[in-house]
Every structure is written in structure tokens, then in C-alpha cells.
UniProtKB/TrEMBL annotation:
Record-given protein name: Lon protease
Reactions accelerated catalytically: Hydrolysis of proteins in presence of ATP
PANTHER family (UniProt xref): ATP DEPENDENT LON PROTEASE FAMILY MEMBER
GO MF annotation terms: ATP binding; ATP hydrolysis activity; ATP-dependent peptidase activity; sequence-specific DNA binding; serine-type endopeptidase activity
Residues of the Lon proteolytic domain: 592-779
Residue intervals of the Lon N-terminal domain: 5-196
Induction, per UniProt: By heat shock.
Organism: Campylobacter portucalensis
One BP term from GO: protein quality control for misfolded or incompletely synthesized proteins
A Pfam match: AAA
Amino acid sequence: MKKILPIIIEDEVFLYPFMVTPIILNSKENIEALELAIKNESMILIATKKDDVEEDLYNCIYKAGVVGNIMRKISLPDGKIKILFQGAYRAKILNMVSNEPLTCEIEIFEEIFPQKDKLEALLNVLKQKVKILSSMSNNMPNDLIKAMENSIEPQRTIDLILSFLRLPKDLAYNFFIKQNLEEKFFDVIDYISQEIETLKLEKEIKHKVHSKIEKNNKEYFLKEQLKQIQKELGSENDKEKEINEYKKKLEIKKNFISSEAFKEIKKQIDKFTRLHSDSSDASVVQSYLDWVLEVPFEKTSKKKSSIKDVEKQLNLDHYGLEKPKQRVVEYFGLRELLELRGFEDRVNNGIILCFAGPPGVGKTSLANSVAKALKRELIRVALGGLEDVNELRGHRRTYLGSMPGRIVQGLIDAKQMNPVIVLDEIDKIARSFRGDPTAVLLEILDPEQNREFRDYYLNFNIDLSKIIFIATANDVNNIPAPLRDRMEFIFLSSYTPQEKLEIAKKYLLPQELKKHGLKASDVSINESALKLIISDYTRESGVRNLRRKIADILRKVAIKILNSKEKTSITSKNLSEFLDKKVFEIDIIDKKDSIGLVNGLAWTMVGGDVLKIEAIKIKGKGLLEITGQLGDIMKESAKIAFSVVKVLIDEKKIAPKNNSKDQIYKDYDLHIHVPEGATPKDGPSAGITIATAIASILCDKKVKSDVAMTGEITLRGKVLAIGGLKEKLIAAHKAGVKKALIPRKNFERDLIDIPNIVKDDLEIIAVDSIEDVLKEALV
């Protein structure tokens, strides 16, 4: 298989397909090759440079190398770039395609395997020779034997062994390009046999030399010998610089971390000092040091809490949302008072705010405003679908590709220890065989525990108590109870059309003009057009789709400006030229009173809605048929409503017209239907609406067309409270309803939350029983 790939030139060692290796890029040619690979989202080939060859780039490299992927890229302060490279397979370089940067046509190696029995015999002999060599040489790590025994792939085993042998480049290249595995095994076995004989001779000589060296000088001699070897190999300088850099960073953080953390980091630096740069352990330790020394232990935002700043920023960024903003100000007011009176240890008072509400109503942007007011970084941790506990806790360093948890990564991204962290979509975390992330969140959000939160990757405790955690959720019922108990919920409900209009004028339109590079003089959207977009082109609780529609318009305006350079005015008359089709959020109610047709009020994830519940009677046996893709709760409400209406007829509180009671029970079936049959519907709040439709049909009485209702009904005819009243009454207002029937408890408890524009336009009546409902609804 042939490919065209950019080439990175490695000065010192040969890489093998299984290796994950950190590499420092300091030449212009290598950096350009890396940027080309990243730009094209392609793999890259790493080839080794020949010794003492001063020719052009293409002719100074061996014509074979390893193709692989760039796992990580880090820009260093001195202009160098550090990458983490994972090899995939061998390849031959066929010819050069370009030298700026060096790009070549390559062909993947196809290895020739001997018979299985012969291959197993060769593999066993090779392993025996390596064990003998390992027992005689200090340069062969203990992990090599274990890895060699666990490996089941012959070609990987021989590559693993070759990577530890420190071969001269020409010899390493000769082994590297051999495609016949049988020949390769024989050659490597022969080489190791020669090394064993050489080591036997060296051991005899060293024994004679070491016997003459004083015991106190032995450690110094060995270190000097190691330094000399590294110097000869040319790897001393880069590694020594990195080690010195790590030590400097640790010294800066020393006074800001615990003794446990200091010991762990120092232990890993010392371990890295002893390891050879080419060993697999070195790359694991180096990755750990790169991560842990980036954690900003010494940096925190020094700004004190100020409710004036918080309140100012919230009002600047958000229209309406008075209650949520007031609660946020109260939260930070308490923090400010504790700071002023010297109770800094109580500032983290254990309250975790959770903004709950439909999509697009401003949950995450409220947290963003808080971060701006406190001059802290905002870090968003998306929890939707999270099911692996290690994503939060961190992976143990024994695993390939392990890394810290998302909280620690957030601190690194924020470059401070006290950012604002938004735990987004906390109601959508999942549980699987990988663990329960809820259990970790309980620890993270508990001020008594998060002072000593242990990240498995760091392997020491870290203090999370300075972080301000803010959660967001769409449905709080989906949050596990123990986690729900940790949080205080601030509910954000749907915006009214008038609020959406103000938000569009004051926030969305100016922001989108800026994003699209337009000026206010380039385009104008009048108020009637904005109202039409809100009423006929969007269907939502928040303003996210409204923002998208404005962006749709401005994109078309930008094209017109490029063509004609004239100002564009958008009104309700020419709006259809800029937007495709209307959505019609809520149908206007019928103007004519009808039998068996009742307006019900419903809550959905995108706001309120008016459902028209229909009922008819047909010849039958007194059965009840229910359609419209209704949930179990709504079906039960229909059965209860049917029984309640029968009781009213039996008690002669309502009377059938032109029919006896027995005829209604035995001669007719009732069919109840809720239109938009493709949309699932559920909930108890349609109880009084269904009862009204049944009563209207059985008594042949019309239902007032301008009346809408919501309420749960009991078997005794009582009307119980419901949720989502604000959204339901806003929907009624949009649909042209004149009178709304709601449960008395909601009337007494929730009416204060209803916008004045809705209360002024609607006659809202409290009802206690089904008799009250029928009195108001039936003609």
C-alpha cells in the first residue's frame, strides 16, 4: 500500500511500530512537516538521520522508518515543539515528492513469515538468549522480560528486544528493513550471542577493576560513567535540560503543595533521571511530569467577591430572569460578608447552585457572567453521556494513554486553582460497568471531602474547595437523589414573547451583527419582523433558535452587501425572502364554540402548548377508546375523567340531552383523541380537560372556544395542582385564549411568577372541583 506523507527526521535512534515516544522538534523542516500532517489530518513518517552525513534532507536519512500518529503536541517556551508519537507500522521511502517540507512517497512493509513451528522455535531461542543477556547486563530493564513473555506477536517481540539493545544506526537499519522474519530472527540471535560473549569478558575485567576502587568512590564513578555514555550517545544535553526544567518548576510550586505531593513529584523526577531516554518507562514518567507540573498550584484569582460586580454583570448580560439573578446575588453576598468578617474558611458554605430549565434559557451564560464578574476563568465540563468514573477521577498510570481527570484538566486549562467550573448537563450522566460517576461527583461537590480529592493519575490529594461549582440541568428528576441533595436548584422558565423581543433587540441582534462583520448602518430589522420571527419561525422556551434565525438573515444580508453595497431593511412584509418557512408554534384557538372540543394547556421541553382534545360518541357498547400516542398516566387520567363524569350523571349534577342514562352507558362508545398523533404525550394535568370533553359529548353541550384549562382530577372530582404553569399560560396568551381555568393551589402559589402582560390579557380563574370547571367551560 503506497501513500504520500510528510517526513520528520530523528537524529539519534530508530523507532519501532509499537513505541509511544516523546520527541523534541527544533528544526524548521521538522516543524513544517508536523504542521503539514496536522493540517491534512494525516499520519507522519519518522526516519532516522545517518551519522556524519552532510547532504540534503532526502539523502541524509535512511530510506525506511515508522509511520504513526501524533498523540499530543506541546509548544515549548524556546520555540521548540514537543510531540508524543505513537508508531503504527514500518514503511519504505520510495521517492521524494517535495522538500519544503520533506514529503515522500512511501510503501508499507509486508513481512514474510516462516512456518508456525519454526517461528515458535526461533522465538523460544531468542527469548532464552535475551534472558541470559538481561541477567548479565544492567541496561536491560526487568519489564522487558515480562513484556516479552506476555507478547503473542513474534514481530512485536523482536522489535521490543531491538529497541532495548542500543544498536549502532547502520546495524539497527539492517535489522529494521529485513522483511523475512526467519532471517531476521537468526541475525538477532547471532548478534545477542556475540553480546553475551562480550559481556562475559567485560565482567571479568570490571571485577578486577572494581576490586581496586574504594567503596566511597563507587557511586561517583558510576554516575560519571553514565554521564559519559549519555554524552557519547548525544542524549545527555536535551534530557539534562528537561530534568533541570522540571526541578525549577517543582521548586516554584514547593510552598503551595502538600509534602505528600512534593514527595511524589520529586520521586518521579529522580526516577526519570535514572531511566534511559529510549525506554518505555521514561515516556510514561515524562508524560506524568508534563501533566502534574502544569497544575497551577501557585496561582489563584485574588479578586474578592463583590455583589455589586456580580449584579452589574448579570444585568448587563441578561434581560429578565429576576428571581434567578436575585438568588445568585444572595449567594455571593453571603460569600462577601464572610470574607469581610474574616471567616474565609466558611466561604465555601456547601451550597452548590444548579440552574435548571429548558434548553436555551441562559443557564450556562449565567455561569459565564459570574465568572466575568469575579474575574475568574470559566471551565465547562460536559457530563452528558459520561459513564466512565475515571473520566472524573483520573486514570491510573499503569494504563496506556492514561491522563488526569476532567476536573484537574480544567484547572490546567484555567491556569488557576479557583476557577468557575460549570458541570453541564448533570442530569444526563450515565452508569455502566466502568463505575458510577455520581459517586465521584458527590465527593467533588462536598466541601467536607473535596479539600482532599485524590486524582488517581496524580496519585496525591488536591484541594478543590476554592473552586466555584455551578451545575446545569434540563430535568432535575433525572439527577440521582444523593446528588440532588447536594445542590440548590434555581429554576429558569420560558421567556414570554415580549421578553424574547427585548432580548433580540438588546443582545442577540448586536452580538450577531458583530459576529458577521456587519454594522448597524448595513441592516435594520424592525420590531414587527422580530415579533413575527418569535411567533411564527421559532418554537422554544429560550432564544437559541431565535439567535439562529437572526444569523440566517444576516448571512443573506452579507451576500447582498457584497453584491450591491446597499443597506437592507427587513420588515414583516419581506421577511419571507430571508427565512425559509414558518414553524407556527401555537395554533390560534377556534372562534366557534363546539361540542366535544376543549382547549387544554400542556408543558413541553420547548415551552407551553395548547392541545385541542377531541371527543365523539359512536354506536357501541359503552366502551372508551383513547388515541393520540398518550402515555400511561394520561390514559389513566382519561379513565378517571370518564368515571367522574358518569358519577356526575348518576347524581344528576349534569343531565344527558335527549338520551336516558342507560342508553349513554350501553348504546354508545366514546372516542377521545389528542391531535398530532406522532408526538408522544403524557402527564396528569389533562384530567379536567378530558372530563370536560366527555361531559360535553354526553350532555350535547358546547364548550366555550375561548376557554383553556389545566389540572389533575381525582376520582372524587377534586382538581389538584400541576407544574409548568408559567409556560402554559404564556401559550394560552399566544393562542388568543381569554379565560384560563387553573387549580386553586396554583392560583394561590404560582400566580406571582406569571408575567404582567399575560395576567393583564387573561382572565385566570381558580377551580376546586370538576363542577367549577364545567360551570365555566360549558355553554
